[in-house]
Structure formats: structure tokens, C-alpha cells
Amino acid sequence: xxxxxxxxxxxxxxxxxxxxxxxxxxxxxxxxxxxxxxxxxxxxxxxxxxxxxxxxxxxxxxxxxxxxxxxxxxxxxxxxxxxxxxxxxxxxxxxxxxxxxxxxxxxxxxxxxxxxxxxxxxxxxxxxxxxxxxxxxxxxxxxxxxxxxxxxxxxxxxxxxxxxxxxxxxxxxxxxxxxxxxxxxxxxxxxxxxxxxxxxxxxxxxxxxxxxxxxxxxxxxxxxxxxxxxxxxxxxxxxxxxxxxxxxxxxxxxxxxxxxxxxxxxxxxxxxxxxxxxxxxxxxxxxxxxxxxxxxxxxxxxxxxxxxxxxxxxxxxxxxxxxxxxxxxxxxxxxxxxxxxxxxxxxxxxxxxxxxxxxxxxxxxxxxxx
Length: 370
Description:
By secondary structure, this protein is of the alpha/beta class. The protein contains 10 helices and 15 strands. The protein has helices at about 70-85, 115-130, 160-175, 185-195, 235-245, 250-255, 270-295, 320-325, 350-355, 360-365, and strands at about 25-30, 35-45, 50-60, 65, 70, 90-95, 100-110, 135-140, 150-160, 175-185, 205-210, 215-220, 225-230, 305-310, 330. It has a 5-stranded mixed beta sheet with strand order 3-2-1-6-10. A hairpin with a 2-residue loop joins strand 2 (about 35-45) and strand 3 (about 50-60).
């Protein structure tokens, strides 16, 4: 399926396609977010997966704005530094994009052979993609469906070529080769399939709250059935706290996780009230997504739970609020849940703390095995 500043590290570490369809062995998952770069390396052996390396490094403020890389040199330097200092050996990179750079559409077409679909897909894409078809990288995947049906669902993915080029250039400048460019939502889904082994009819929401973009992916079994990106994330919480309490960025980051920074006059209750306002806006966007999904879905389709990834997942009181709001179980995403982890090599407390942050990077690293 379609599938600087400072390090936060465990105690020790030991040709291009816009797709998760192709296979490439030995890649390193590289998640370049708006505020931080996350890296993961996973080794597979007969269906078992072992965590080999994880690392992350903070980016300077405004290095990436609205998905645009403003300071490519800084991003490249950070990539080089973390690879060198953590002795990461892999040179092939799997990375990903989201937000305005990516369009994902599920389209319904008459059943046809793969060769006929290849000949027709560009024309179909022009009917559904709001960009000039010459300006995008295009990929597609036929979703499983009713064998008796005369129609088939095709997942169409398009990404702006200039955004792909910008991303691959900073990686090349760091001396690495980009072998796969994926979509954040599908990378997270990859980590979900390996770690949670969902039942065929189990429908869940995968929520990835980044600094500036939130990815919503509704998954039934191992198939993505609805995706949407929302242009808000952890930065909205930080900005609101900064303005309300006249805080530095660093202190606002501490406060949004439910801790009072030194010298801050705000109480926890005051902070929760401010955070709640932003959470309600985010929950409203999720609610609109779910409402639209239910309108398009078969009667009786039921979402049983929600897994929340990304740095924004750790906002104080967010997870219990979402559980109460939607009446389903909600928990932080654990991308290490079904991986073999050497406890002598990786600090357990670190893994628990940063598990949601590393989910996309782990999903990209798993992509190396198709």
C-alpha cells in the first residue's frame, strides 16, 4: 500500500520517487519538521524489526516557515552534524512532506488493467489536482475493493515539484541521497501497521500534530480511507501562551506541556484555560473532518479510537480532552511498541518521552522494506 542548537539523545546510539510503493533497502528515515529534525534507522529480519538508531536536533526559529525551507544551509548542517555525531551509517534517505505541498485524492474509476490505468492516470489527475500537472510529481495506488464491482478506488497523490526539489537539495547538500519521498500521513500509517497490527475492519484516526501542520489520516485495517491536513499545530499553542503571558518561546514551550517555567507568573490553571481555547479550535477541525468522513462512508462505519503523534501530542490535557470530546479511546502513538529495542543501548525513559515525536521518522525507516 501507499503506504543549534541542542541534541536530545538516548544514552548511546550505536533515484527519486514520490511513493511508498517502490522498495529501497537500507534507507534512513528523515523527518524534517518546522522546528526539529528527527532521524530513525530500523533493521528488519524475517518480519521482525529492530531499532538501530534514533536522533533528533532542534532547528533555529524560522528556518522553515509554512513548509518553505528559508535557511537550507542550516538544515543541511544539522543533518550532517547528527549523522556524524551519532555515527549513522546509512546514506540513502526516506523523507516526507505534508501540508500545502501535497494533494491526496481518492478517485473512483471503472475497473481496468494496470497498464491502461498508467496510460490514463495523467488525464484523471488533471480533473482532480488543482495544480498544473507539469508542476507536480504524481503517484497512485489501487485500493483493495469488492472483486465483483465494476468500479475501483484509486488513491492519487501529487506533490509540487519545487517543494520536492527544495527538500532533496538540502539533503544532497548534507552529502546524502534521497531515495524515497513520502507523505507524512502515510509514513505514520506505516508505523501504525507494524506496531499495532490492526484488524481488517478496525477503523482508527491517526493524528500527527506537528509544529505548523496537523495530519489527519482515517485508516480502516491497513488501508487509508480519508486524509486531510490542517494548517495548525503546536506553534499555535506556543504563540498564544507567549502573547498572553509575555513569555519567551522557550518558556512557552515548557508551559504548554503543563510545567511552570522559572520566573513565570502564570498558574497552571491560567495556562490550561489558554491551552483549552486552542485545543477546542483544533478539535473543531478534527470534528469537521470526521463529519465529512461519515457523510461519505457506509452506514454503520464506526471509528473506535485515535492515536496521536507529533510534538503537539504532548500539550497538557490534550489527549484526555480529545477522548472525552469524541467518546473514543485516545492515546499517544508509540512507534517502538512492536520493535525490538536493546535496553542497554537506548534509554527507556527517553523512548517513552519522545515516542510520539519519532513516529513519522520510524515509519519512513520502515518504508525501506516496502
